[in-house]
Amino acid sequence: MIKLDLSHTVSSIPLDAYIQDAKYINNMLKEKSGLGNEFTGWLTLPKDYDKEEFARIKKAAKYIQDNFDVLVVAGIGGSYLGARCAIEALNGLFPTNKVQIIYMGNTLSSNYVAQVLDYLKDKKFAINCISKSGTTTETSVAFRLLKELLISKVGEEEANKAIFATTDKNRGALKQEADKKGYETFVIPDNIGGRYSVLTAVGLLPIAVAGGDIDAMMKGAYDAMIDLDNEDIATNPCYQFAAARYYLYKVENKSIEMYVTYEPNLTQLSEWLKQLFGESEGKDGVGLLPDSATFSTDLHSLGQFIQEGSHCLFETNIIVEEPNFDVMINSDKENLDGLNFLAGKKLSYINKKAFEGTLLAHSEDGKVPNIIITIPKMDAYNLGYLFYFFEKACGFSAYLLEINPFNQPGVEIYKKRMFKLLGKPGYDK
Ligand code: PA5
């Protein structure tokens, strides 16, 4: 369950001012009457998801676990960030799961791609190519290179059994290729856009391969769906969070929301959040710029700016109460480092004090508003809950700004420019 603390926002948030907005937008989401309503399938996904496909995801995950050393996830934006976020949040940065997960298709860097291909040369690897459109350049280029390597290693017939395509039900180049070659295929539903797709096969297959408990994750999302289906802002932390960030943006002129975690394993959660909110809200000349920091690491880089720099931001802290692993600080006879005052304390306790001290420094001394979201533990259940919480908060926030949360027209502009420069047919004007 999520706890939201708005008591460190410097000026108090007048939640009562948003009572009517909450009712109106809640209804708009429920009735699917808002902008972009054809992409609100994520709202009821935790109960409506395709159970037959879910079983197939688990079967495919087991097959990959039993037969391969590496799964290469080829996708970009919403087609990989959720999976990566979950896998790192649950397994940490030094995972012990049997199948290593590697990401490609999220960059056009020849340095990165050449090194991954080289690393894969002597590995038994499978590919999960993920693209709703089936035509995204970064993903398509990576997929072509990966296939070439795989076929050269195992031949086309075996390669086809090691390729899993997650894409649109009917359309796109990836779907056509999958049908022709007989790849096992998973569907990205029509009514769910990329950045809202982590709880579809887009996220679930890689997460399951990495050993994540996808049943627990869907249960967490389901419970969030039930808990947050509530138009009363006084008792709905999701709408309170959305209203608070809207107030800080509109009234307090904070133009940047910095997602802060105290766990390196959650750095990719911030990346997922940046994409979710940035791509949903940043349009029509409005929107908060999402930024992120991992503390206490970044207290030694961005900390100075946050404390004393221009007053352009607020922080949204995502705090996990109980760590999955802990370390004890022991007493040292010589105490040459002077650290015996910490003897007998766990590292998680020190990290907690770092958070509490930073919170005071930033909000009280620096007058930087801080929102705090706390979850009890980082496990699949709570992560599923958190995904749903933020998706709903994002949809609600964008509707407060009176924009369409579910499109991304601006993303197309760089593609057109790039295609023209690359001489792609049809882009010569
Ligand atoms: O959220 C989105 O819709 C985007 O970030 C897409 O996920 C991203 O552009 C990748 O698109 P596709 O899945 O079509 O390859």
Number of helices: 16
Strand and helix order: EHHHEHEHEHHEHEHHHEHEHEHEHH
User: What can be said about the biggest beta sheet?
Assistant: 5 strands, mixed
Question: What bound compounds does this protein have?
Answer: 5-phosphoarabinonic acid
Number of strands: 10
* Computed structural class: alpha/beta
Distance N to C terminus:
53 Å
What percent of residues adopt helix (DSSP H or I)?
Answer: 40-55%
In round numbers, the mean pLDDT is: 97
C-alpha Rg (nearest Å): 23 Å
Shape: globular
What share of residues are in beta strands?
5-15%
- Low-pLDDT segments, ≥5 res: none
Across the major sheet, the strand order is: 1-10-9-7-8
